[in-house]
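Just curious: can you write a single protein's sequence together with how it folds?
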Amino acid sequence: MLLKKNAFFSLALASLFTLPGVAQIDYNLKDFQTPDIHYRSLDLSSYFGGGSNVTDQSSAINGTGSVNLDFYGYTNTDKYVGNQKWRLVGSGNLSSNENTPENGDESDNKSNHFGFGLFGQSENRWYLNERDAGFLGVHGVLDIDEYNSTSESIGIVDYNNENITGRFKGQLYAAYGLGRIEPVTYARLAYDTYNWLGKKKRLISEPSNEDVDQLGEVMTEVANTRFFDSRFKRIFQLEQIDSALRSSGNISEADMVYFAQVADIWGYANNFSRGSGSIWEFGAAGDFWYEHYSSFQTSNDSVTRDEDYVRDNNIAVYGYVRYLNQKPLNVKWQRDYEVSLYAGSGRHFVDIYDEVTNLSSQFRSTLKAGYQLGFYPNTRTSLQLGVSGYAVYGDNFDHSDEGMGYAADLRGGLYYWISPRFRFSFFASIIYTDNWVEGSFVPNLSENWTFVKNGLNSGDSFATNFRASLSYALF
C-alpha cells in the first residue's frame, strides 16, 4: 500500500512539470503577430461583513463593506496599441461600543469611516508608418482618494471628532519610441492544442507553423470577444476553435476525446501573460501629488480644534529613456528585461499648522535594471524568478542624505491551476536598500518592475515578504 502511495505521489509530482510533453512540431513562438483586438470589460464587485462581541460589561457591533467598479480596455491594431485600467472604490465601516462597568461609569462610543478612491493607468502608442516602427506615446497615472471619519463618545467626557483625508497623485508622460511588444499567450495555447491532439492520435498530418498561427489568431479573437452571459461565451469560444481546427485539415476524428482535450486546454486560457518584442522609448514626464488632512473636534460642546493642519505637495519634471525586451526562448521558457534612466528636478511644499515650508528644487535621478526568467511547462503551471537593481542620486526633501543610494530586490512566483477554477499561488521577495533617497523617481508605469520601499528607511536595510493563497472561482 505504501509503495502504491509513493508511486502515485511521484507520478503526480512529475506530471506537474512534464505536461504536455515533447513537442510534435517546431514552432517559433516569438514570431507570432497578434490580430486586431478591441476589447472592453466592466466589472462590478462588492464586499460586506460584520460581527459582534457581547460580554457582561460591554457590547460591540461592527460592519464594513465596499463596492468596486473595474474597467479594462485593450486595443491592438497596426497603428495603435492601448491599455487602460480604472478602478472606482467606495468603502465604509461602522462600529458601536457600549460599556457598562461595575463602577457605573457607562459610555457609548460610535465611529464611522466612509470614502472613495479612483485609480487609473493608461498607456497609448500611435504608430506612424509600419506596425513596429516609430510611435508617439502618451501615458498617464491617476490616483485620487478622499476619506471622512467621525467618532462620538457619550459618557464621563462627551466628545466628537471628524477627520478628513484627501490625496491626489498624477503622472503624465509624452514620448517617442521604436518597436513593439506582441502578446503571444494564445499562440502558446494553440501549440499546446495541436500537441495534445497529436499525442491522442487525433491528427492525420503534422500542422504547419501557419496552422498554429491561424489557430492562435482565432483563440486571441474569441478570448477578447465580450459576452454578457458566460455560458454563451464558452459555447461560442469552443465553436470557433473547433471550426478553425477542422478547417486546417489536420483532424482525423472529432470524437469525445477530441472535444475533451480542446475544452480542457482552453479552460486554462487566461492564466499567464507572455510577450515578444522590444521597445525603445524616450520622453518627458510630469509628476504631481498633493495631500491634505483636516480635523474638527469638540469636547463637552466646546470646540478644541478646527483646522487644516497638514497640506503637503510635490511637483517634479524629468526626462527618461527606457528599453524593454520580452523574448520567448521557446514554448516553455520566457526571458524579459528592462533598463531605464530617469533624471530631473522636483520641488516640495509643506504647510503644517499654517507654517509654510517651500523647499528649494532638488535634482534626482534613478537608474533601474531588471531581469526576469519564466518557465511555463504546461497550460496550468508557471514559475517566475526576477531580480531588479536601482542606483539613485539626489537628496531628500529636507536636503539630508545627499549622494548615492542603492536598492535591489529578488522575487519569485509559482502558479499552479489545480482545476480551471481552483488555483494555488506563491510569491516571495527580498528587498535591500542602502541610503535610499526619499522621493526618487520610480514611476508607476510597468508596475511589475516597480520597487516599493514600504517601511524602509535611510541606511542599510533588509525586508522580506511572502504570500501563499488558494482561490476558487465561484462563477
User: Anything to note?
Assistant: The longest strand covers residues 302-328. The chain is about 15% helix and 55% strand.
